[in-house]
Write a structure and sequence with these properties.
With 312 residues, the protein is of the alpha/beta class. It has three domains: 3-82, Arc Repressor Mutant, subunit A (Orthogonal Bundle), CATH 1.10.10; 84-172 and 283-311, 3-Layer(aba) Sandwich (D-Maltodextrin-Binding Protein, domain 2), CATH 3.40.190; 176-281, D-Maltodextrin-Binding Protein, domain 2, CATH 3.40.190.290. The protein has helices at residues 3-9, 14-25, 28-35, 39-53, 69-90, 110-127, 146-150, 196-201, 218-225, 257-264, 295-311; strands at 58-61, 64-67, 103-108, 132-137, 155-158, 169-184, 203-207, 231-236, 252-256, 269-272, 280-288. Strands 3, 4, 5, 6, 7, 8, 9, 10 and 11 form a nine-stranded mixed beta sheet that branches. Strands 1-2 form a two-stranded antiparallel sheet. The protein is globular.
């Protein structure tokens, strides 16, 4: 038996679940409830984890706890490891959604969640009421990290930018969209047509803005394709926050049409066609080919395909 195998055999893998819930909840009592053990048992497990990592992991601050730097680093790793373990032991020759307690994990942007979140929630309520769905929000460009991330989740929903040639990834188109511009309804542009000079002179709200030299997120890529170097007045790590940040200002933003139309119903914004050659958005489900023959994953893929088709 190899040294690495001996080390793994000597570990109490139940501690992985304890660690995950502690880092999620940042509270011993709530973590104990999530794991289904007593608070003293959970505290004992935390003590073992602290000895193993030689780190406090959770430090009391005021009435609550905060994570140490190491704990923040472990958070993403333990989520990936637990998701992979759950996939492994949930895999079988059949899948009954009505009785399954499997946890599915999907990674997507908050824009995508705004579009498919409600039908997805209704699907699980109706077809798989005991199954669990964990949605992790994309915080930045995924193109570099996707092959690794896809190994530990059930799927990533993202446009096919630089992803088609990545090895061992399968894909399924879900729905399409397109870019439009949004401004405050009281903007000097009014309902008139936009020109490229307009876009160049105005201040911008840009989600997930990155400096040149790093992989560009979708909005920055679209602006670069138009030959624009935007004057970024505000940047935000969210697509859904963008429309509110132009209201009452003379700023402009590029937004997915589905999102813009919904926000125009409740915010004082105007939706304007973007000049230049149109560029569509193809929201695609990506998964690792290890999941191809998993019947539970096949069910999820087919249901997501149906949601996409109903969106039109």
């Amino acid at each position: 038996m190899s040294r690495r195998t001996t080390q793994l055999a000597g570990l109490d893998l139940n501690l992985l679940v304890v660690l995950r819930e502690l880092l999620r909840e940042r509270n011993v009592t709530r973590a104990a409830e999530r794991v289904g053990v007593s608070q003293p048992a959970l505290s004992a497990a935390l003590a073992r984890l602290r000895r193993h990592f030689d780190d406090e992991l959770l430090v009391r601050e005021g009435r609550g706890y905060v994570l140490t730097p190491l704990a923040r680093q472990l958070g993403r790793q333990v989520e990936d490891v637990c998701a992979a373990a759950e996939q492994l032991f949930a895999t079988g020759s059949s899948f009954a959604p009505g009785t399954s307690v499997r946890e599915f994990t999907l990674l997507m942007a908050d824009y995508t969640l705004a579009v498919i979140g409600q039908p997805l929630a209704e699907l699980f309520e109706r077809e798989a009421p005991r199954a669990r769905l964990r949605i992790r929000l994309v915080r930045e460009s995924l193109s570099v990290d996707l092959p690794r991330v896809a190994r530990f989740v059930d799927g990533v929903v993202a446009p096919p930018i630089e992803l088609e040639e990545l090895p061992k990834l399968r894909s399924l188109e879900l729905f399409r969209d397109e870019w439009v511009c949004v401004v405050w309804a009281g903007h000097e542009l009014g309902d008139g047509g936009l020109t490229l000079p307009d876009l160049q002179r105005l201040d911008w709200v840009v989600p997930y803005h990155r400096e040149p030299g790093v992989p560009l997120p979708p909005v920055s890529r679209r602006l670069a394709a138009l030959g624009l170097v935007p004057r970024v007045a505000m940047s935000v790590e969210s697509y859904q926050a963008v429309p509110a940040l132009v209201v009452g200002t003379h700023r402009i933003a590029l937004v997915q049409r589905r999102l813009a139309v919904e926000f125009a119903k409740r915010l004082d914004i105007a939706v304007l066609e973007c000049p230049g050659e149109p560029e569509g958005i193809v929201e695609t489900l990506w998964w690792h080919d290890d999941l191809d023959l998993d019947p539970a994953h096949a069910w999820l893929r087919e249901e997501l395909r149906g949601i996409g088709e109903r969106l039109g």
